[in-house]
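Project standup — Tuesday

K.O.: blocked on the structure for the chain from last sprint. Re-posting the sequence here as requested.
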Amino acid sequence: MGTTEPDLPKPHIVILGKSAVAQTLARLGKAIGYEIFVTAPGIAKENFSSADAIGEDFDLTRFGVTPQTFVVVSTQGELDEVGLEAAARTDAAYVAFVASKTKAQRMSEELLDKGVSAGRVAAVKAPAGLQIGAVSPEEIAVSILAEIVQVGRSRAGSPKAPEAAESKDPVCGTMVEVASARYKTERKDRTYYFCSSGCKQRFDFDPAKYKRSAK
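H.V.: unblocked you, prediction finished:
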């Protein structure tokens, strides 16, 4: 019997706005496998026929925004501050704003005045997209999608190297078999393995003393 691939959820892009950039981004994003959610007051649904879901306001709760969601604000002159505030208040790690640097700076100041945290404001990517000299709506959409792909790949990271079969006890220097080790301590920098409870207790009492010998 063959193996079954896990049914993983598709990454999704939430687009706020109905601009030409928004329309192109929705179409291209769908073409390469993203789920596309678009929302904006007065949206013409026929312009987003490829979208998986369409909303008519800036309430993003219906789209299940998570830190893994890509949010793009492409309002471009239509309720910019409302859309950007809604995006900045989500948990999305990637929030991009299609705007000039000058406008983005002004919007950032307005967000701070409205009580959005400085950390969330600073996390907004503006101007949106990779800096490739994009000018037309199509080029801007391509630059944004390229940036989303880049960010998504960097999140996935490289595969972890297999753990070593043995590790040196930082207290006594004995080589300990990792797979069968009974005593270990997990720290932010790494996991330490010990040959006995005594060595583990000595390490836990004063880890700084023994970390140097473990390097």
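K.O.: great, moving the ticket to review. Residues 14 and 64 are 10 Å apart (CA to CA). The two ends are 46 Å apart (CA to CA).
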